[in-house]
Write a structure and sequence with these properties.
The chain is of the alpha/beta class. The protein has six helices and five strands; from the N terminus they run H-E-H-E-H-E-H-E-E-H-H. It has a single domain, classed as Pyruvate Kinase, Chain: A, domain 1 (3-Layer(aba) Sandwich). The longest helix is centred in the last third of the chain and has 77 residues.
Length: about 280
């Protein structure tokens, strides 16, 4: 059984840990509000550019753009693995890495793009070459998204990759962040646009084909930027939940060790009393 001193040191260490987790919980709560607000401000633009793209595809008879054509057959498939830069967020990063590993098992010939420090570290153990790395939350995120979009666009159009797949989290709610594997390139025409009654209500000048050629790179750029915003918000949501659970667990351990320390102290006091009484009786006898 641990001594009173050992239990007191353990309780002191748990209280220090509890202070750290409580501080990290407050920081995550503040950052998730900013990240979520930034993501919500970007949604109107994402909805508008998506609606315009569907309307354009519905009005274009034949699309002559590299993004709409299959890539080179013998080239590896490109995969963007998007994780956080830091840990202490429960199984957030591990779930994303596991989703990428499952995708890698079903597709042998892959080339990787790492977004986030945890992604870069995980891809060192994966088959296939890691072509380039970008941090998630270091520097200006939109600049990183633009650079990422330019790199994958050049690799796809020049035949260095046959397709592009994105592995990133989907922020369902504050308690749930679900890994999502979705194809990005080539862009497949959707059949929903033809059924939209508003389709064709916009006139394009000089032509839908010309506007589509300019819009597709912007659409790819903003798709990746939106995924970065959602990954950042998902990370802070997962960290908030993890630090809240860690703070509660620390409190439970402190209570349990306090009870054990009181028992050990009482046992020591009882032992001393018994020794005193025994010694007094021995002297009296």
């Amino acid at each position: 059984m641990p001594s009173v001193r050992d239990l007191r040191d353990r309780i002191r260490s748990l209280k220090n840990t509890q202070q750290i987790t409580k501080a990290m919980k407050q920081v995550a709560a503040a950052k998730i509000r900013r990240a979520d607000a930034l993501q919500k401000r970007s949604r109107p633009y994402a909805d508008a550019i998506g609606a315009m793209l569907r309307d354009l595809i519905a009005n274009v008879g034949s699309v002559d753009h590299p993004f709409m054509k299959p890539g080179r057959e013998d080239a590896p498939g490109g995969v963007i693995l998007m994780t956080a830069d830091k840990g202490l967020a429960g199984s957030f990063n591990a779930n994303l890495i596991r989703a990428a590993e499952l995708h890698g098992r079903s597709n042998a010939n892959l080339a990787w793009y790492a977004v986030g420090i945890k992604s870069r570290n995980a891809l060192r153990r994966q088959r296939g070459e890691t072509l380039q790395f970008w941090p998630l939350a270091q520097g200006v995120m939109f600049d990183n998204a633009q650079e990422l979009a330019r790199r994958v666009s050049d690799d796809f159009t020049q035949g260095r990759i046959a397709s592009l797949t994105l592995v990133s989290p989907k922020l369902v709610n504050m308690m749930t962040q679900r890994p999502e594997v979705r194809p990005i390139l080539p862009i497949a025409p959707s059949g929903d646009a033809a059924a939209d009654p508003r389709s064709g209500s916009v006139e394009f000048e000089p032509s839908p084909e010309f506007v589509l050629g300019r819009l597709l790179p912007k659409y790819l750029e903003f798709t990746l930027y939106s995924a970065m915003l959602e990954t950042n918000a998902s990370f802070y949501a997962a960290q908030l939940v993890a630090m809240n659970n860690a703070t509660d667990n620390a409190k439970k351990l402190i209570d349990e060790n306090t009870v054990e320390m009181n028992k050990a102290r009482q046992a020591a006091i009882t032992k001393e009393i018994l020794e005193i009484v025994g010694g007094a009786e021995a002297l009296a006898g």
